[in-house]
Inverse folding.
């Protein structure tokens, strides 16, 4: 049932930035599979959560204005549309969503202690735990059933999805709402953004696969929103099947039809995608090498988990991209996983001596271009691989 379609080579843990360049860092196979029965796309090698989501997890959701705005707007929508008395967030990171609610109404679940501490310190109840059935049982005993459960960019990171949805369904009230959002498989395939695959992203969801998956737990999607965040995400609004008060929006059917039109339910689509990925690698390397042959310098902009996949799959090292800049304190002065490329602290001055910047954070292109308007006017040119490798000429 699980059919192989792409090998992205050996990859280090995507968020394992270290102070020293380790030549023999642990690397794991990154192979992609399509399940012909339930239509789920996943990676084969599962790394234990404890190895990936540690107490020094460097990714902070609050590092971009775009994400802050997106979560703030969602909090307004939740309050107006669903008026929940109790809210639980699975994977609350540094509190980008929960801090928009009253402290007494919201509970955060965050396995990375360094992140959980940030919200706890602000007085938001945060369980420093991994999401599973055991925890759901304890929460129900302590707090009762929950009106609204939310999770962004987290459920695709958990290997046992049956346990995930069983636990959610168990904790949610009969009329409760579940909202989840994750990168859209359709957008990823359309944009050839193969860097959405790394060891933390065990699954890439589509409306087709999510609706197949949640059926077993008596859950169904009743609304869908396509978002621009993370290069194209989908927000799924989910309810219990027995709750007939809420109508199912036409958008759900439309999304599934769209995905089918694009062939997301067929293996051949993924085989074609694999061919495009190989070409994308070749073309990106040609661009970088051509620039270097003219003695021009390249910096990486945004030391993302996605960029780790690109660097290791395309075998890009310091001779092509000298450094990366990033605003996240936890990443600065460390090395890109698997590569000898150092991350330096972002300042506009740090970009001055470079001719080109490779967009590691291509998903924030708009925000970054606005910020770097002056430099772009002077001489800085951006390189991206999405949806095809090119130098962006303004
Ligand atoms: P960003 C992470 O992926 C990992 P990444 C994780 N697995 C996941 O699912 C997604 O997030 C949601 C920096 N930056 O969001 C900040 C600047 O330096 O694309 C971040 O380090 N300057 C949990 O890592 C990085 O770029 C800027 O102006 O692929 C962005 O990372 C901006 C806007 C960002 O996620």
């Amino acid at each position: 049932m699980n059919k192989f379609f792409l090998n992205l080579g050996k990859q280090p843990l995507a968020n394992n930035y270290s102070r020293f360049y380790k030549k023999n860092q642990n690397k794991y196979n990154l192979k992609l599979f399509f399940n012909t029965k339930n239509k789920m796309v996943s990676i084969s090698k599962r790394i234990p959560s404890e190895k990936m989501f540690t107490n020094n997890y460097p990714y902070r959701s609050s590092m971009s204005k775009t994400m802050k705005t997106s979560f703030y707007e969602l909090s307004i929508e939740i309050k107006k549309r669903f008026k929940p008395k109790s809210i639980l967030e699975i994977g609350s990171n540094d509190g980008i969503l929960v801090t928009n609610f009253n402290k007494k109404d919201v509970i955060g679940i965050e396995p990375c202690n360094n992140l959980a501490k940030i919200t706890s310190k602000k007085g938001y109840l945060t369980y420093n735990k991994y999401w599973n059935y055991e925890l759901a049982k304890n929460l129900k005993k302590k707090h009762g059933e929950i009106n609204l459960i939310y999770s962004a960019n987290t459920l695709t990171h958990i290997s046992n999805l049956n346990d995930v949805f069983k636990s959610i369904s168990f904790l949610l009230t009969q009329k409760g709402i579940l909202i989840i959002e994750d990168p859209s498989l359709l957008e990823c395939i359309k944009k050839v953004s193969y860097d959405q695959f790394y060891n933390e992203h065990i699954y890439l969801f589509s409306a087709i696969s999510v609706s197949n998956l949640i059926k077993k737990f008596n859950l169904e999607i009743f609304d869908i929103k396509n978002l621009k965040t993370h290069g194209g995400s989908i927000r799924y609004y989910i309810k219990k099947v027995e709750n007939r008060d809420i109508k199912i929006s036409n958008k759900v059917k439309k999304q599934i039809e769209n995905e089918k039109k694009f062939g997301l339910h067929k293996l051949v689509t993924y085989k074609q995608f694999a061919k495009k990925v190989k070409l994308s690698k070749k073309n990106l390397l040609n661009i970088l090498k051509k620039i270097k042959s003219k003695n021009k310098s390249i910096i990486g902009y945004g030391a993302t988990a996605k960029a780790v996949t690109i660097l290791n799959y395309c075998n890009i090292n310091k001779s092509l991209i000298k450094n990366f800049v990033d605003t996240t304190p936890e990443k600065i002065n460390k090395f890109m996983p698997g590569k000898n490329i150092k991350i330096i602290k972002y300042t506009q001055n740090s970009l001055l001596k470079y001719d080109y910047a490779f967009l590691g954070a291509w998903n924030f292109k708009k925000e970054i271009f606005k910020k770097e308007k002056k430099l772009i006017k002077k001489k800085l040119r951006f390189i991206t691989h999405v949806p095809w490798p090119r130098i962006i000429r303004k």
Summary: The chain is about 35% helix and 25% strand. The radius of gyration is 21 Å. The mean pLDDT is 97.
